[in-house]
Design brief:
Blueprint (H helix, E strand, L loop, with lengths): L3 E7 L6 H6 L6 E6 L6 H7 L3 E4 L5 H11 L4 E6 L2 E3 L1 H12 L6 E10 L3 E2 L4 E8 L3 E5 L5 E4 L3 E12 L3 H21 L9 H16 L6 H28 L3
Parallel strand pairs: 1-2, 1-4, 2-3, 6-11
Antiparallel strand pairs: 4-8, 5-11, 6-7, 6-8, 9-10
Length: 249
């Protein structure tokens, strides 16, 4: 009987997926949902004993639901290719699944590291561990969220997230996903973009990162990351403006 199925969604993650898989060695089953990789992601995953399923879509809920449909464990753990489960979290998960927990799911704390090794002070809490029978599925094309039946707890330990590793990958990510973000806002009937909305959304994004998440304490890295958040927001809303102009009746 498989207690824990780990599910990783990946695309072109040959540099990162090996360590992610190594941190999941305590799981009885590891599934990699490969979203159209053109590098050695699949080969590396299979060499480490993971089951690889290939599917191509820009809908993250579809990817997570696909992984859920293939998983055989009593518990489902989701992590990304640029994440690792630390030792304390591993021990917390093993202890939890061995008990008859009253919770249907758990929030896991996540530490973010920018540009390789610079730790961000703000700690996120994400729903990532679920009793399979209590997880009804995921909703939301890009910023997906789980549909859970029952109570949610929280575990000790951390997911370590090595994101925004260099400026080139950050810019490529913005280029790749800003069109989807803009289209979602357009389809939701976002108000017309006028000139004053641009500085407002950019300033909000910058302050949320630099002040709200205490990016100012991270020195140059904090300033660069916060300015990037403002830039990324600008690109998304500029594409929204473009959509509104092209489809103006």
């Amino acid at each position: 009987m498989i207690k824990i199925s780990a599910v990783i969604i990946a695309r072109n993650e040959e540099k990162m997926i090996g360590e992610a898989l190594d941190s999941l060695s305590f799981c009885g089953e590891i599934l990699v949902i490969d979203n159209g990789s053109k590098d050695r992601t699949k080969e590396i995953a299979e060499s480490k004993g993971a089951k690889v399923y290939e599917i191509r879509t820009n809908d993250f809920s579809e990817l997570r639901n696909f992984g859920l449909s293939k998983a055989k464990g009593d518990w489902i753990l989701y992590i990304d290719a640029d994440e690792r489960v630390d030792e304390d979290l591993r021990d917390s998960i093993k202890k939890t699944v061995s008990e008859n927990s009253k919770y249907s799911a758990f929030f896991l704390k996540r530490k973010n590291y920018y540009f390789g090794k610079h730790e961000w002070l703000y700690i996120e809490k994400l729903e990532r561990l679920f009793k399979k029978e209590k997880l009804r599925g995921w909703k939301g094309k890009l910023h997906e969220s789980p549909i859970i039946e029952g109570e949610i707890g929280q575990l000790d330990g951390y997911i370590l997230h090595f994101t925004h590793r260099d400026l080139e990958s950050m810019l490529n990510k913005t280029i790749e996903w800003s069109s989807t973000e803009a289209l979602l806002r357009y389809n939701a009937g976002h108000p017309k973009m006028t000139w004053w909305r641009f500085p407002r959304v950019m300033l909000t994004a910058f302050l949320q990162s630099y002040i709200g998440q205490k990016g100012y304490k991270a020195g140059a890295v904090g300033l660069i990351e916060s300015m990037y958040q403002a830039f990324s927001t600008f690109i998304t809303y500029a594409k929204l403006w473009e959509l509104q102009k092209l489809n103006k009746k």
